[in-house]
Amino acid sequence: MMSPKRKIACLVALLLALAMYGIDAVAGDHGVTIGVLQKPFAMGVLGFVGAWALIIVSKMIMAPLLQRDENYYEEGEDADDNNE
Amino acid sequence: MTIMNNINPAFIFFGIGILAAMTPGILRRIILLGLPVFALLAAINLEVGTKASYSFLPDYTSYYMNVDKLSWIFVFIFCIMGVIGSIYASHNESKIEALCSMGYVGSAIGTVLAEDWMTFLFFWELMAASSLFLIWNEKREASRGAGLRYLAVHFLGGNLILFGVLQKLAANEVLITCLTSGPKDLAFWMILTGVCINVAAIPVHAWLVDSYPSATITGGVFMSSYTTKVAVYALLRIFAGLDVLMAVGAVMAIYGALYAIMENDMLKLLSYHIISQVGFMVAGVGIGTEMAMNGAVAHAFSDILFKSLLFMCCGAIIYATGIRRINQLGGIAKKYPAVFVCFLIGAMSISGIPLFNGFISKTITIAAAGAAHYEVLEVLLEVASIGTLMSILFKMVYFIFLAPAKEEIKVRSTIPKNMYVGMGLGAFLCTFYGCFPDYLYQYLPYPLEYHPFSIGHIALFMQLAFMAVIPFIMYLPKMEPHSLLSLDTDWFYRRPFATAVRYCSYLGSATCNALGEAWGMLTGRVMELSSNPMQFLDAKGFRQKRHYNPENYRTAIADPIMIMLTVLLMSICYFMVRV
User: Fold this and answer.
1) Is B346:B304 a contact under the CB 8 Å cutoff?
2) Which residues 2-61 in chain A show a CB within 8 A of chain B?
3) Based on the domain organization, do B249 and B225 belong to the same domain?
4) Segments forming the whole domain that contains residue B433
5) Are residues B263 and B211 in the same domain?
6) Are residue B127 and residue B258 in the same domain, yes or no?
7) In the beta sheet, which residues pair with residue B484?
8) ipTM score assigned to the predicted complex
9) Where are the domains positioned within chain A?
10) What is the pLDDT of residues B525-579, one digit of tens each?
């Protein structure tokens, strides 16, 4: 469960993003050429989904597969030195 | 000012390096603080269109200076970084480091200004050699190994380019030309692979993450700025518009961001971000339009400023506390507010926050991808931007500077003032170019009509940034890094390949020992036999006895006694019968 502070921070971020969407909708000239990203609040959704996907892939898929003890390489190299 | 006209700044840096190596303490500091400015002035005064060459062999001329708009902007930013870096590093006691860092800057500039293949290759190799000593000068056990691996990888890359260049020279192509539209022959692929090694393209990127954090603190600042950017320049010059580079760039951008989210070591995290940011530039080269090429150049310019600033800030923290791991830090903002402000500026710059220089350069490449209708590439680069935002602006800023420290952080030494000056200059330039992008845009190699500060554009980017904060806060406990090492493609040559080499070495040693022993036995036997030819001729002795024994050649005493007694007994018997 998230602490109240974190919930408030999320809510503030969401409100700011919506405010930015409002400004963007009024201003219009944002230079985006992709059709999908021109839909309302599409960049906001991309920001959320992109960040979420990066965390999932990095922390929950790659980290368990690829992370090892910090001395992982040194152990092998030390063994080598001892053999020498 | 006229004295400085059309002098190759590379030679000034070489001179500064040699002077710094020969002078003692305070004088060396003065040289490092003051003289690089002359190289910067020389760069500013270089006129586009200037060419210079020098013939020093009967059939060979080195075209060592060719100033066009593309090479000039790289020389300019390399000189700016040379000034900032030498100020930051001026407290160093090591003469070797002063020589190598200035030599490294000079060779990077020499590579960029070279017009012919051989001069280009000469400075390219000099750059690798001088940077190697920035790693070995750290004098840690890890740095020794990292330096050797750096040497091996760059030796491979340099030789690939050399083979390609030799084929070009054999075809009488002396000057560097764009190879994209030419034949895709062996020389093309060899030069491309060699350059891709230096640009840290996936999967030949691991040398960067391995070596940069292993260098000295000040050496890392220099290294973060030059090797990969020179390689980006080489791609722009030789392989502009090569389609495959778009995919290479997109993979680099995403890959670097993913690893950066996992990483715990500050300098390794920043090294992964070099890969990610260089991915933007490589993608820009691959798109090949004028806007994309401008984007790649502008982002290389910005990246040198903000990445060196981030390395300088992390270096200052390591210098002061001796701690490299993010999970052992916390609350640094209170202890070092100036470092925090500089780091924040660097973090906002690399994340592309408006009014900082990342925003005015990164978005050009993304917009160029969209304008050229490479929609997937545009989305991938946006996602990579989110990764940068999360791992540097959110993760590093929060866990290093704002979150409470788990243990009390002991201050080991005071940060020297020259380090603060270096960081301050970097932070100022990141903000200056971020607020006044035209000072950069006017020097780009192609005309550019791009206005990053439209309200819609800023609002759109901030929308993306604010929404990206939400998952970070949601997963905050998971975002905290741990004291673990992330395996990368260097695993292949540090583990299975190293094991294979080790066993091959054991096998070779065992075979050598066995052959040695067999030879020793054989020669011993021959010596033994040749010392006594009689033994050799005696079959029995040869087979049964190892050494000559005279007893073997004597008859037993019992035999003659028995014969004599038998003869005596038979004689007595005979005489008795006769009588």
Assistant:
1) no
2) 2, 6, 9-10, 13-14, 16-17, 20-21, 23-24, 27-34, 36-37, 41, 43-48, 50-55, 57-60
3) no
4) 240-481
5) no
6) no
7) A69
8) 0.88
9) 1-30, 32-84
10) 888 777 766 666 665 555 555 566 666 666 677 778 888 899 999 999 988 887 6
